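Posted in: Structural Biology > Protein-Ligand Complexes

Title: Requesting predicted complex, zinc ion in pocket

I'd be grateful if someone could produce the 3D structure tokens for the following input. Sequence and ligand are given below.
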Amino acid sequence: MLAFGHHAVRAQPRTPIADLHSHYGLITRSLDGSGLSDDMRQQRVALMAWKLVADGRWIGRTPTGIVQKSEPAPGELIAYFHARLDRMKAYAAQHRLKTVLSAADVQACIAADGQPGIVLASEGADFLEGRLGNLQAAYDKGLRHLQLVHYIRTPVGDFQTVPPVHNGLSALGRLLVEACNDKGVLVDLAHSTPQSVDQALQIARAPLVWSHGWVDRAGGRFTDPFGFLQRRLSLTQAKAIADKGGVVGLWGLGLANPRAGWSVAARDTRAYANELAGLVDQIGRDHVAFGTDIEGVGPNWSVNDYTGVRAVLDHLQQMKLPSETIERVAYGNYARVLTAALG
Ligand SMILES: [Zn+2]
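-- Reply #1 --
Done. Output follows.
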């Protein structure tokens, strides 16, 4: 296969991929059989926020969305989190995936000869069990990207899919944003209510992300009939996140009935590319990224691996978006906010 090898060497290096939100190997696939490390290498995934679902054991799908199903006993959330995190770290070590711990690591992963980079991330700060001091143990194990809330009731703050009880972020939630800034952990506002987003933007000293979802003229409300409607981020707040240097990730959700606002059907990588390009027009090329939510969006996904994400990038190229725009959306924007947050 010398001829093939020669050709491969001469091929242009492909644009790296970064993903603000991925559950690859953590929900629908078994981790060991997931093929994650091979897929990351083959598709040149430079940075992947690998999202541990902090409340995963206590939630479930209903016909209209995801809800809390049971109440964790004291100690269970923290034990669950550390057991899952240890498992993820063992996989990364076994498959020689680089764990991104510093701004220098971010740069090393996006460099031409970079290794695939794992950003250990949590969807929900539930493992704190209400105590800010519990952040340190997670940080020490490598956590660098933290989404404040998810689907179970939390002392951190309100979330989009149930009636609010904290008026946004609680006192703990505000301190958590500050603590993340102090330590060098990227704060992720996905699932938070509009009030929490406003409060976090006021407090934060580093850019913030909304890692996954979609953007609509109006934001979602907990009274909306379906989860994907509740999970809308308003265009006004997307712009506010952008104004502070932050980034909004669009997910790989496919709908059985695509609609204005989210036109993506199952397996439709072209429509996903169109949505990314549309958000670039609305909030600027420095503020849009992939937040695929691989394994988290249910059976109607548009992409379920990085071969799919590469197809989306190919569509963006065919659409003749400027190469600088494609590079920022593909990896540059996540690399920039992560670098700023990790310091
Ligand atoms: Zn989510």
